[in-house]
Amino acid sequence: MTESNLGAVVGGPARDALRAIAELLASDSPAVSDRVTLAIDYPERYVEVQNDLYSQTLEKPHPEMAWFALVDALHEQELLAWVDWNEDAAEVLGRLRQLESAPGAAHSWKWADELAAGYDRTAGLETLLACVGANIAGSGVSVAWLDSDSDTFLIVFVPSVQSATLVELALATGHCVRVF
């Protein structure tokens, strides 16, 4: 696939939405927007950079590459947690607490230890995320799960007033986001 063909695949609303998601979730981190922009506007160069810097083996650009660039950049900036579907609740909560966008000093995480201790893993990770969302509801931040089309949960925090916008933008890219 050539750069011009990829531009046609990741164009219009999806192209603008990817950039808007990067800005929404990482407004203080231009590295995220830069990486997404590189993947969209210069896909061949993005492949080269990824292969050189990160020892990846991308063969050629593909339409999902810009979404992966967003996810990777958010993770590198500690704005996204990769969580396996069967991870221990204490581990999940510990990772969420460490995210740069997590509710901070003004919002206590005292509830997290009790939640982890009493959490039934068979309830599923979505139930845990719903509990996190309920516990941080007053912080002005919501927890969101970005579609990964796998057993991995990609979890971010989003300003609550922007959560509906995040869902709409993700849909414009062909992905789903669930906010708790």
Question: What would your notes on this structure say?
Answer:
The chain is an alpha+beta fold and 180 residues long. Helix content is 54%, strand content 12%. A 4-stranded antiparallel sheet has the order 1-3-2-4, with helices on both faces. Helix 2 (12-25) runs parallel beside helix 5 and helix 3 runs antiparallel to helix 5. Residues 1-9 have low confidence and may be disordered.
Span between termini: 38 Å
Give the class from helix and strand content and strand pairing.
alpha+beta
Question: In total, how many beta strands?
Answer: 4
Strand order of the largest sheet: 1-3-2-4
Q: What's the order of the H and E elements?
A: HHHHHEHHHEEHE
> How much helix is in the residues?
40-55%
Give the biggest sheet. 4 strands, antiparallel
Are there runs of 5+ residues with pLDDT below 50, and where? 1-9
Dominant shape: globular
Q: Provide a count of the helices.
A: 9
Radius of gyration: 17 Å
Keywords:
globular, disordered N terminus
Q: Outline of this structure?
A:
The protein is an alpha+beta fold and 180 residues long. The chain is built from 9 helices and 4 strands. It is globular.
